[in-house]
Amino acid sequence: MSKREAFLMRVDPEVLDAVRRWARDDLRSVNAQVEFLLRRALMSEGRLAKHGRKRRETGDDGSSS
After folding, report:
1. I want to staple 47 with a disulfide (CB 3.0 to 4.6 A). Which of 12, 22, 42, 58 is the partner?
2. Helix axes 13-25, 30-44, angle to 10 degrees
């Protein structure tokens, strides 16, 4: 299993309640649901490679850094 890092996050109670309901509907913990949502958002924005592969960092001109 990959290493996990903990961090504190402040969130609006209404948002947290919605995430709790969604997590329950998807049979996930709130923590797993938040990570799922973050991963999905990061992948859709091209900021995280799919299937856990690291994306190569590039400079503004597309060259490797």
Report:
1. 42
2. 100
